[in-house]
Amino acid sequence: MSETVPRPTLEAVAARAGVSRATVSRVVNGGDGVREPLVERVRRAVEELGYVPNQAARSLVTRRHDAIAVVVAEPETRVFADPFFALQLRGISKELTAHDNQLVLLLTEGRDDHARVGRYLAGGHVDGALVFSLHLDDPLPGLIRRAGIPTVFGGRPGWSDGTGDDLVYVDSDNRGGAREAVRHLVGLGRSRIAHIAGALDQTSAVDRLEGFRDVMGNADPRLVVEGDFTPAGGERAMRELLDRCPDVDAVFAANDLTASGALRVLREHGRRVPDDVAVIGFDDMLPIAEQTDPPLTTIRQDIEEMGRLMARLLLKGAGDPASGVVLPTTLVRRASA
After folding, report:
1. If we measure between CA atoms, which residue out of 38, 42, 101, 32 comes closest to residue 66?
2. Is it true that the peptide bond before 231 is cis, omega within 30 degrees of 0?
3. Can you tell me whether residue 45 is helix, strand or coil?
4. Which residues make beta-bridge pairs with 170?
């Protein structure tokens, strides 16, 4: 049996570099006041010995954990089935990795999970939180506020933090993108334009519905059906629309997954797309939009960049007085409209 090789200690690094233990500690923990030649000697000794700082001890000194909680207010089954979350998490992960921070993923399945997440955040395990997919009645904002840690939200908050302070968030131009989608359908000569909304307890769905109404203010109210941002929700809503309004000639869906469900139902009912019914989605998630039949015209939002920007704002201290950052959207034309 091989013997376990002891880990190099701070004292061993100090001896190798010919400096005091306190000097090594300041260099390793990013402190000031050490002359550059000594810094280089310490770094060289660290590399030669393969010294790895004790994270727990380092946290006591720096009060930093180099770990960020990513809180997704959705159940596990939804998070791992929806490419939106994978793209946003990829953007967050890239930014945190570039700054040598760990990502701690926290999901919420129910009210008990909210309390668990709140306790974890208040327990001093992480330096901040990135939170997205919140619902309007979600208790998480209050729990996070009580935890007292820096936070950046994904999506426009639909609540106040209760202190009068601005909440820091990153979002896309949901309302403007929806307007562009519906104007495109109007430009194609469509007049019975329906909207399959997302879950209306989320601000992104509300904003996209408002964008639809900006263009179609006098539309038949039967042409709006609430979905839930899933393919199954898109199928249910499309069947309801065809029952209510069989003469519908265009559909703006709240996201690409919803649109994919709507396309399946239209195909089942013998409706040709785009000849009989034009369809537009929202997101431009390529695994979805390019593989639907026909390929989906959609509104593109840069989901991965939203994640990166959330992480960047948090790591910078989120001190910019402009509390909301709204990224632009663009129409991507394919065969469905």
Report:
1. 101
2. no
3. helix
4. 154, 325
Whether pLDDT at 159 is above 70? no
- Give first-to-last CA distance, the chain, whole Å: 68
Which residues are CB-neighbours of 15 under 8 A, at least 6 positions away?
none
Closest CA to 186 of 175, 178, 196, 174: 178
Give the 3-state secondary structure of residue 99: coil
Residues written for the chain: 337
- Between 5 and 198, the higher pLDDT residue: 198
Angstrom distance (rounded) from CA 263 to CA 272: 9
Share of the chain residues as helix, strand and coil, in percent rounded to the nearest 5: 45, 15, 40
Backbone phi and psi for residue 196, each to the nearest 5 degrees, phi listed first? -95, 105
Do 16 and 47 meet the contact criterion of CB atoms below 8 Å apart?
A: no
Looking at per-residue confidence, does 31 or 331 come out higher? 331
Cis-peptide, bond into residue 274, ω within 30° of zero:
yes
At residue 133 the predicted structure's pLDDT band, cuts being 50, 70 and 90, is confident
Which residue in this structure is represented by tokens 């880990």? Answer: 7
Confidence of residue 213 (pLDDT cuts 50, 70, 90): very high
Q: Enter the pTM of the model.
A: 0.78
224-226 and 278-283 beta bridge pairing: unpaired
- Write 148-151 long-range contacts (CB < 8 A, 24+): 148/122, 149/121, 150/314, 150/317, 150/318, 151/314, 151/318
Taking 60 as the threshold, does the pLDDT of residue 64 lie above it? no
Instruction: Say what the pLDDT of residue 235 is.
Output: 97
Is pLDDT of 5 > 60? Answer: no
Residues 6+ apart with CB under 8 A from 282: 174, 177, 178, 181, 208, 252, 253, 254, 255, 256, 259, 298, 299, 301
